[in-house]
Amino acid sequence: MIPRARSLRARLVVTVLVLFALACVAIGVATTVALDRFLNARQEGEVVSSADRFARAQNGQLPRPPGGQGGPGGEGGGPGGSSFLGPQPPGSVGVVFAPDGPGGTSGTVVGAERLEDDGASTSALPSSDLAELATVAPGDPPRHVELAGGEYQASAQVMNGRIYVLARETGPVSDVLARLVLIEVIVLGGAVLVTGVAAAVLVRREMRPLERVAAVAGRVGQLPLDRGEVHLAARVPDPDPGTEVGQVGTALNRMLDNVEGALAARQDSETRLRRFVADASHELRTPLAAIRGYAELSRRERDPVPPGTAHALTRISSQAERMSALVEDLLLLARLDAGRPLERADVDLTRLVLDAIGDAHVAGPGHRFIPDLPDEPVTVQGDAGRLAQVVANLLTNARTHTPEGTTVTVGLRSGPDGGALLSVRDDGPGIPPEILPRVFERFARGAESRTRAANDTPSTGLGLAIVAAVVSAHGGTVSVDSVPGRTTFTVGLPAGAPVSTTVSVPV
Ligand SMILES: Nc1ncnc2c1ncn2[C@@H]1O[C@H](COP(=O)(O)OP(=O)(O)O)[C@@H](O)[C@H]1O
Ligand SMILES: [Mg+2]
């Protein structure tokens, strides 16, 4: 797999490779330059001594090779030589000049010869070579010349008034350098390649623990931690505290322990609070019923009571009624919050809607209720009592928060995946815009509902919160769309079994 260009892994491998390749190039260049200098210096020395040998051979200071051919090997030159050149390595070129002008280097060619590669036979030189060699001045350091036979290094000596120029091939030095460069390219190139593969493998292996840490963090990041009971089972397996990555893993594990503890404490206190609200609501039911009963009883008293007392009794009665409704709603919400399992049965929504409309007719004769139902009955799996309450709450709102004469349409459709789509629409004044965004929150209610006079249906601000809680416990969704003259609540219910609100994520 080719790592992504920006991944840490790829960058590490590329960095190592680039550094190593730079080091290889530096080593290669340094070696080549050093060897080049060394070989050149050595060759220059040899050319100088070859020129000296040439001059001395010409002046009879060296024993002539037997038969004018062959001879003792020159230093570094191998066996070979001629009576003209003296002992020289094969390929050597020698020219004797007689200077014609004072101090001039060029002059008449007295003799010239090239020792062939076999080290014995000789040949004449082309005039271009003679002209080139005539430019080599005695006393100068050896220099490069280009002759017909290739690259040469030449040196000149003066002896007995004549100039002896000797040139030797530089081929051997170039060959050695070329071979060195070739070897360097192959060896260092191979080393770069092997290093690249090894670096990729090693970096990958070293990165694996980091990937495990990232995977754990990623899994935890996907857990819904905001509500319900949460088990944070994900942990980095056996982090090695000796390594940096291991320390990150250990720190992450410790953080998860901490978070898990905090979540458990949060869940614990939530549970206790819910139980308290449920218990309190439950405990309040009985005394409230008693208050209502006694108020009712007193109002029916035959003996005349003062008008003030009669009014007080009516207020006591209606406020107790309102408080009962509040307590019932609170109890229901507390139970829904606790994630108490819902009943699961086939619920005929069509029937349920028709019953609710019937009740609404009786409660609000001044409103028009229009069912908009399909011929086929629509059913879902769920808790019939709770779903009836959803429809009742929506219809109550459409009745109590709108003026008489308002038309309320209740629509029901089969959802695309076998679920159901329920809508309650009215052409009333609409939900006040300031509470519309949080209309499903607890105790969110319009100013008008707050100040509403005694009513058959007291306003608690919990009706829509209950709708939202029941629908979400069924795994459904609820939404509202409201403008003056058109308010629509839409409830989507899935066909399947209701889901529990307790969150538990095994990892
Ligand atoms: N159909 C509706 N038309 C106008 N206002 C509505 C409608 N339904 C709900 N509301 C507004 O939303 C508020 C919250 O509704 P709800 O939670 O049922 O509380 P409650 O009905 O007890 O006041 C209501 O007080 C009311 O102001
Ligand atoms: Mg309501």
From TrEMBL:
Q: Name one GO cellular component term.
A: plasma membrane
Q: Which residues cross the membrane?
A: 12-35, 176-203
What is an example of a GO molecular function annotated in this UniProt entry? phosphorelay sensor kinase activity
Known catalytic reactions: ATP + protein L-histidine = ADP + protein N-phospho-L-histidine
Q: Does the keyword Transmembrane helix apply?
A: yes
Q: State the UniProt keywords alphabetically.
A: Kinase, Membrane, Phosphoprotein, Transferase, Transmembrane, Transmembrane helix, Two-component regulatory system
Q: Taking every annotated instance into account, which residue ranges of this chain make up the domain Histidine kinase?
A: 279-497
Q: Which residues form the HAMP domain?
A: 204-264
The subcellular localization recorded is: Cell membrane
Q: What is this protein called?
A: histidine kinase
What is the source species? Pseudonocardia endophytica
Q: What is the lineage of its organism?
A: Bacteria, Bacillati, Actinomycetota, Actinomycetes, Pseudonocardiales
